[in-house]
Design goal:
With about 375 residues, the chain is of the alpha+beta class. The chain has 13 helices and 14 strands. The radius of gyration is 23 Å and the shape is globular.
């Protein structure tokens, strides 16, 4: 096993002790909390790999579920191996089984190099990508390379390779016992904890004039000032030539109310700028809309920031019309709540027109999404 890290961002680590070796790539946001649980004083500097090693020794395959952040990793005792990827899937991990050998790496190009595989595209992947119809989350743009699904763990030994999920978010729905008057306090605590865990001291929030990133900023700004004694920085794009979509007035209002140190820039990137570079880096198709976020990331790095907070995934929390909610309410026979959900969405639905199974089937084709409140992007 081996890891590579840049001088600017040390986000990889190795550890070996008493018959186990661990490699971790990425950031574990609750590292201190997990370390306090398993590591004892006098064990030297804390690293992600050292903490993961202790977690696996104590909790085996349940260990990744106890971690929070953007990460992937490998654990081996020399005869068997475990490889895992974070809950949401921001950390990436690829693998290939070739005879009795198993290759695992964060990038597809590393699998190609290690296994001697000829580099060529997987046409099945491209077809599924174009038509948005794939039931195989392990498909990869490179033929012969597989991608470990999010929230999953790969087990490899002499008997072969097996993949199982360690995270089952559907089992958490409606499992918290809180009174209505306790919800606001608990939500405030969790959001403050979430933003506080990702702070590095070189942080900026990508701010828009909507409700997603300002909501994250509302919790991040006071916590950042409490910890560092200075205002949280914010970056925002302005489009003066397109007044219909320019959100500068709203952004400036949010920044003023929250005391953010706002930096506004006018995007210059064209839609296809840098596309070839990112296709090469990502070992596959990259969205053509990535040019402008890339411009923001490069600007953030030039200003000295290394972590960007955003509200890119908040819509999965606030949009109650997603298929996973419909399916849950049907299975739980919560028909009154289901009807209220339809009415809120302005949908014409009648529960008497068919059985609950048919209702669930009607929505089973909709895309299911995982929920998170804030995305964290590293700028290496």
């Amino acid at each position: 096993m081996g890891v590579v890290s840049s001088d600017a961002l040390e986000d990889t680590s190795l550890a070996a002790h008493d018959g186990l070796a661990v490699a971790v790539c990425g950031r574990i946001d609750n590292l201190d909390d997990v370390a306090a649980r398993w590591l004892t004083p006098g064990m030297g500097p804390i690293s992600a790999a050292k903490v993961v090693l202790a977690a696996f020794r104590d909790s085996a395959d349940h260990a990744p579920n106890l971690l929070r952040g953007t990460f992937s990793g490998v654990v081996t005792d020399g005869a068997s191996m475990r490889a895992f990827r974070d809950h949401i899937g921001f950390g990436v991990l690829h693998y290939r089984q070739q005879g009795t050998d198993v290759y695992v790496a964060t990038e597809g190009k590393q699998i190609i190099a290690g296994s001697g595989l000829h580099r060529e595209p997987d046409l099945d992947f491209l077809q599924c990508l174009l038509y948005e119809r794939s039931d195989d989350p392990a498909l990869c743009a490179l033929r012969g390379v597989r991608r470990l699904p999010q929230g999953s763990i790969l087990s490899a030994d002499a008997t072969g390779v097996r993949i199982s999920r360690f995270w089952h978010p559907e089992m958490l729905l409606e499992t918290v016992s809180l009174r209505p008057d306790e919800l606001q306090h608990r939500f405030d605590d969790l959001m403050t904890q979430a933003v506080g865990r990702v702070f590095t001291g070189q942080d900026v929030i990508a701010l828009s004039g909507g409700i997603d990133s300002p909501a994250v900023a509302a919790y991040a700004a006071p916590e950042y000032r409490r910890r560092s004694g200075r205002p949280l920085a914010a970056l925002s794009a302005s489009y003066p030539d397109l007044p219909g979509v320019d959100e500068r007035a709203s952004v400036e209002l949010v920044a003023r109310e929250l005391g953010l140190a706002l930096e506004v820039f006018r995007p210059r990137a064209r839609p296809l700028d840098g596309l070839r570079e990112w296709v090469k880096r990502c070992d596959g198709p990259a969205p053509s809309s990535f040019a402008q976020p890339r411009e923001m990331y490069l600007l953030a790095r030039s200003l000295g920031f290394r972590t960007i907070l955003s509200g890119n995934y908040a819509e999965f929390v606030i949009d109650v019309g997603h298929a996973y909610l419909v399916r849950h309410l049907v299975r739980a026979r919560r028909f009154r709540a289901l009807q209220r959900s339809f009415e809120t969405k302005g949908l014409a639905a009648s529960l008497s027109s068919g059985s609950s199974d048919n209702l669930g089937e009607r929505y089973s084709h909709q895309r299911s999404s995982t929920s998170t409140t804030a995305a964290v992007t590293k700028t290496p």
